[in-house]
Amino acid sequence: KVPGMARKLLLFSFAFALLHVASAFHVSPGVLQSMRFKSQFGSPTVHHKCVQRVRFSARESGLSSAKMALEFGTPEFATFPQSMFSIVNFVVLPFWALMIAAPNNEATKKVMTSSAPLLLCAAMHLSLVIYGPVTDPSGSLSQFQFLATQGFVKLTAMQEMRQFPVFVSEEWVHVLAWDLFVGRYVYLDGLEKKIPTPHSLFFTFLLGPLGLTMHLVTRAIVTRDPSSILKL
């Protein structure tokens, strides 16, 4: 019964993903008849956090000639924050690919049961935490004071923090590390309890907490234990 249930969960997941993407845009019927989808991403990682701009533009030709063009940004390595921002995207992708595409492979199990992937991300994050105070002590202190007194309270203040490359890079590594931590938990919990996890991992990769919620729901259905949804 589990394989059939897993297929249904996967179909539901992809249907939900399409609805989620569709609901993010308001497209008129005229544009739907003839349009070109064009997007620009801030990094190679296809992740909801790295999308910078998505644009729909109508074409004069018919639907049969509609094209999809994806334009990816070039990774930046001119400064240390830029390098860490670019590198961490490439670092986490193989771990997600292994967990989603080859969950039962022995290599995947060996890699993901180890804490090495998380420690690698932690080391990159620590390097950025140290880099700021070492290279600009006074600036880092003022930024921290502003973040502690304003950034955690007001959205506009947090938006102002985006002008500081070290802060943005540090937060990005922070987010990807926590996402991987949650994804690793979902994967290992699925192995232990023999629960299908690719769909949950896919959404954890894209939308973080939603993927964890999907895993808890899946676990409750497969184990026929509704109370397990409230347990980690």
Descriptive report:
The chain is mainly alpha-helical. Helix content is 66%, strand content 9%. It contains ten helices and three strands; from the N terminus they run H-H-E-E-E-H-H-H-H-H-H-H-H. The protein has helices at residues 2-23, 29-33, 80-101, 106-112, 116-135, 137-151, 155-161, 165-193, 198-207, 209-223; strands spanning 35-41, 51-58, 68-72. A three-stranded mixed β-sheet has the order 2-1-3. Helix 5 (116-135) packs antiparallel against helix 8 (165-193) and helix 8 (165-193) packs parallel to helix 10 (209-223). The protein is globular, with a radius of gyration of 21 Å. Mean pLDDT is 79; it is low at 20-68.
List the helices and strands and how they pair.
Blueprint: H1 2-23, H2 29-33, E1 35-41, E2 51-58, E3 68-72, H3 80-101, H4 106-112, H5 116-135, H6 137-151, H7 155-161, H8 165-193, H9 198-207, H10 209-223
Parallel strand pairs: 1-3
Antiparallel strand pairs: 1-2
Helix pairs in contact: 1-9, 3-5, 3-8, 3-9, 5-6, 5-8, 6-7, 8-9, 8-10, 9-10
